[in-house]
Amino acid sequence: MSRAAASLAWRLLCLVAAMAVLPACSPAPRGAGTLLAIGGGLDDDNRPVYERFATLAARAGEPSIVIATAASGDQDDAAKGKLESFRTWCPGASVAVMRRETPTTESVAMINRATAMFFTGGDQKRITDRYRPGDRDGPELEAMRRLLARGGVIAGTSAGDAMMGEVMFHTGRSAQALGIPRATDTGSEDDDAMLGPRIGPGMGLVAWVVTDSHFFERHRVGRLVAALEVSGRRLGVGVGEDAAVEIDLASGEMTGVSVADSLLVDVGSMKRTNGTLDRLACRALVVRQGMRVPLPALLASTPRLPAEAPAVVREVPVAEPGQNRQLASWRLFMQGAESHEGAVALTLDGWSMRAWAAGQGWSWFDVVVTARPF
């Protein structure tokens, strides 16, 4: 067996193993509650996000907020920052702090009294290790589900966003997730050279989508596409920094809350090309403030296959004068949705994307691996 064939066989074995450990896609919780997924980097003056959280916290009764710091390394600092924010945006609300070390009986009592929870950022695996060990619901998670059932809200930023789905990212860069060897990947987010998406069971608060954070800023489109493929999920939402989306668990409707945007990714029509690591014919929708997307209806639909990708007519620069290079992925999809005469493209380290208009604000896009895979 050649080295290339052996490497491909190993990747297929890893793919099967990864799929085996992930939970099957179960019906989404049907309570009256709400999730507020925040992509990280939440500014203290983000009025739309904090005001929406305050409104949702008051829907289930006198506002009572639990700040959950399980993901954070410095829990005291994380708690202090959010206590100050909620004093400003949720005056009059009672606020308690639930740390990793808080005994289960005390944590459950806090959640039972709460109308809202807010998970701080850090490492999402700390959250699942504490509240869903061994992919089994712990008493605190059961209390969280009761909170949602009585109309409460669970919000989370960064790690608190990433943990919400049944499938959760542990770590990893897009190049690594797409199968590009470390030699061509100069990122520093994770030193582990293991290829493929680094995923596992999440908290299971929502089943319609896989959630990701710091999305445009860290060029995470590639890893979300790879994770959806491996896990057998169809939809993923990448939430940008200082951005938020709201998911109504009764209706399945997702709404853009913030001025900053997020991206809904649909791999229902994705195709693979034999002998390559390319992922073709995916769809994406930039989720802007006030936009509403019915997730169950989208999952029930069958996307039509696009025609062959048009020729690239314009390259989106990684950085334009006066613009942040971290938002190049956002510019690609914004321009792609309006590109009716050809595709726009973005070249990154070892991989690239091309996008073109699909109608109604959507864009088709391909993920193309430009580095040698073996």
Dominant shape: globular
User: Kindly, what is the distance between the CA atoms of the first and last residues, rounded to a whole number of angstroms?
Assistant: 14 Å
**Content of β-strand:** 25-35%
Number of strands: 19
H-E string: HEHEHEHEHHEHEHEEHEEEEEEEHEHEEE
CATH architecture assignment name of the largest domain: 3-Layer(aba) Sandwich
Describe this structure in words.
- The protein is an alpha/beta fold and 374 residues long.
- The protein folds into 2 domains: 257 residues, Rossmann fold, CATH 3.40.50; 58 residues, no CATH class.
- Helix content is 29%, strand content 25%.
- The chain contains 11 helices and 19 strands.
- Strands 8, 9, 12, 13, 14, 16, 17, 18 and 19 form a 9-stranded mixed sheet that branches. The chain has an 8-stranded mixed sheet with strand order 3-2-4-5-1-10-11-15, sandwiched between helices.
- A hairpin with a 3-residue loop joins strand 17 and strand 18.
- Helix 4 packs parallel to helix 6.
- The longest helix is centred in the first third of the chain and has 19 residues.
- 51% of the residues are buried.
Provide a brief overview of the structure.
The chain has 374 residues and is of the alpha/beta class. The chain has helices spanning 3-21, 47-57, 75-89, 104-113, 124-131, 139-149, 159-162, 174-178, 221-231, 295-300, 328-336; strands at residues 34-38, 64-68, 94-98, 116-119, 153-157, 167-171, 198-201, 210-212, 235-239, 244-248, 253-256, 262-266, 271-272, 279-287, 292-294, 312-315, 343-347, 351-359, 362-369. It is globular and about 60 Å long.
